[in-house]
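Changelog-adjacent note: as of this version, every example in the card shows the full chain rather than a window. The one below runs 234 residues end to end.
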Amino acid sequence: MVERDAEGIAVMTFGREEPLLEELENRNIPMVFIDAGPERAGISIVTVDYHHGLRQGVQHLAALGHRNIAFVTGPLRLHSARSRLAAFSRTLQECGIPVNQSWIVEGDHTMEGGMAAAERILQQKDLPTAIMCSNDMLAIGVLHSLSRSGVRVPDDISLIGFDDIRMAEMMIPPLTSVQMSRVDLARAAVGALHAHIEGSSPKRKYKVDTRLVVRESTGFPRNTMADLRVSGSD
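Full-length structure tokens:
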């Protein structure tokens, strides 16, 4: 990109490659990052409002009657994973639901990581009635392990992912997920770079919203009155 005289660069990853960034900083190339970036002129941050979408997810589960909710995080060395966990924990407290630390399991944002996390949860004496995940690939891995263990989604455990990737709606059952619009993310990044290049008062931070997309992987907790009424009508 330097050889091609790039006027600006959007770093659209949730990790940071320090040697690369130092090289670009030394050349004073305008850059845009997701969630966090160096504090200097010529850099803007696209911040994702994790709290709004995760609040909708927790409130959705709470409205169904869930009080025992687990969370599978991403790698906690990543700012985005820590932000999603903080938003989840804060929302539980807002809803008056206690945070059970034994149900907070670290994953790695891969399907295999979700499978391993689900196995750790299933080994516990007390099981949650719902699981939220830091991204959809984790949730798909969780869904695979639960199915293999004979645990039905959402009959036995409800499940929510994050990102709303295309594959989420192709799963069986289709996955309820917190949507983070890639179009909005790209638009914010390009708008920020354009402002830097044109010198038109670029902002330090640009916000991207999230929202819950409800599909078929969430339902009433098993053996609650609402669940029994639904089961009785089948």
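Structural remarks: The first strand starts at residue 9 and ends at 11.
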